Amino acid sequence: MNEEVDYELTPAQWETLKALRTPASKLPRMSRFTIDGLIALELATMNGDAPAITAKGRKVLIRGSSLLLQDLAA
User: Fold this and answer.
1) What SS3 class is residue 28?
2) Cα torsion at 12, 32, 45, 28 (round to 10°)?
3) Which residue among 2, 5, 35, 58 is least packed, with the fewest CB closer than 10 Å?
4) Are 56 and 17 contacting, i.e. CB atoms less than 8 angstroms apart?
5) Nearest to 65 by CA among 2, 1, 21
6) pLDDT, tens only, 35-67
7) CA-wise closest residue to 64 among 11, 6, 25
8) 3-class state of residue 1 by DSSP
9) Is residue 4 over pLDDT 60?
C-alpha cells in the first residue's frame, strides 16, 4: 500500500519539522502546541523529554520541500 498523503501544515509546523532534523542538543526553543500537533500527525515523537522527527515526518518533509519551493516562487 502506497501512503501518499499531503499534509496542510502551518508555517510554524514546517519550521518545527525542519528544526527537528538537528541533534536534540542543538534544538531551538519550540512551541509545545506546534510539537503536539506534529505528534498527533505522527510526524514527531517524544524521545525522553526532547521532540524528535519520525520516519514519516522525514518523508513528509522531503516530499513537502518541493511544495514549499513552489509557494516561494508564486
Assistant:
1) coil
2) 70
3) 2
4) no
5) 21
6) 999 999 999 999 888 899 999 999 998 887 655
7) 6
8) coil
9) no
* The three three-digit cell numbers of residue 38, written as one number: 506534529
What length is written for the chain? 74
**Contact predicate 31/16, CB 8 Å:** yes
Please, are residues 67 and 11 in contact by the beta-carbon 8 Å criterion? Answer: no
Give the N- to C-terminal CA distance of the chain in Å, as an integer.
33
- Grid cell, residue 19, equals 528544526
Q: What is the DSSP letter of 22?
A: S
Cell digits of residue 32: 509545545
31 three-class SS: coil
Query: Cα separation of 70 and 53, whole Å?
Result: 24
Q: Give, in order, the Cα–Cα distances in Å from 24 to each of 2, 5, 30, 69, 71.
A: 31, 27, 12, 26, 29
pLDDT higher at 37 or 23: 37
